[in-house]
Structures are given as structure tokens and as C-alpha cells.
Amino acid sequence: MSELDSQVPTAFDPFADANVEDGAAGTKEYVHIRVQQRNGRKSLTTVQGLKKEYSYSKILKDLKKEFCCNGTVVQDSELGQVIQLQGDQRKNVSTFLVQAGLVKKDNIKIHGF
């Protein structure tokens, strides 16, 4: 009977590796930059995942002045504080964050179109 048990294939779990990686996922914090389509040609850029010790209002002030656009900081229950900017500012924001030394280029994920 033990010979038969060793020959019976076990169920394959495709998510077994993903469960192991979930523990390591918190070690590398990503900053997510997304674009959301509003009505017509209007769009909205959101930045989430910055460290909590940064002053979001000061970063927003510099971003608004640098890119000549309006923006706000929104408090979200799941995501925490999220910076919103008018227009498609994905590339501008990513280069700004890298040049300011707030985030490494490897830790930025750009989403959208």
C-alpha cells in the first residue's frame, strides 16, 4: 500500500510560491504612480506609497510649483495618504522623486495606459 501512496500525484498548488513571497513583499516598498481618466481629455495622477515620515503637503507644494498644476492630498482608509495631481504627470513625478532623493528609481512603479 505504501508503494501506491508514493505513486499517487499530489495536488499542485500554483500559489505556493506566492504565499512564500508575501512575507518578503513588505521588505521592498514601492511607490505607485497611476493615471486615472476623468471626463473627456481630463486625467488625474495619483502617487501612493511614500514613506509616512515625509511631509506630504511640502512634497505637494513643490510638485505643484514645478509642474504648474493643481493637486491635493487625500486621506484613504486602505492606502493612507495619496497625492493627487491634475493631468498626466507620471514621468514628471517619477523623475522629481528620484532627483529629490525621496525614492530610488528601482522602487517606482508607473501604471496606466
From TrEMBL:
<dbReference type="InterPro" id="IPR005874">
    <property type="entry name" value="SUI1_euk"/>
</dbReference>
<dbReference type="GO" id="GO:0003729">
    <property type="term" value="F:mRNA binding"/>
</dbReference>
<dbReference type="GO" id="GO:0006417">
    <property type="term" value="P:regulation of translation"/>
</dbReference>
<dbReference type="InterPro" id="IPR036877">
    <property type="entry name" value="SUI1_dom_sf"/>
</dbReference>
<protein>
    <submittedName>
        <fullName>Translation factor SUI1-like protein 1</fullName>
    </submittedName>
</protein>
<feature type="domain" description="SUI1">
    <location>
        <begin position="31"/>
        <end position="101"/>
    </location>
</feature>
<dbReference type="InterPro" id="IPR001950">
    <property type="entry name" value="SUI1"/>
</dbReference>
<keyword id="KW-0810">Translation regulation</keyword>
<comment type="function">
    <text>Probably involved in translation.</text>
</comment>
<dbReference type="GO" id="GO:0006412">
    <property type="term" value="P:translation"/>
</dbReference>
<dbReference type="Pfam" id="PF01253">
    <property type="entry name" value="SUI1"/>
</dbReference>
<comment type="similarity">
    <text>Belongs to the SUI1 family.</text>
</comment>
<keyword id="KW-0648">Protein biosynthesis</keyword>
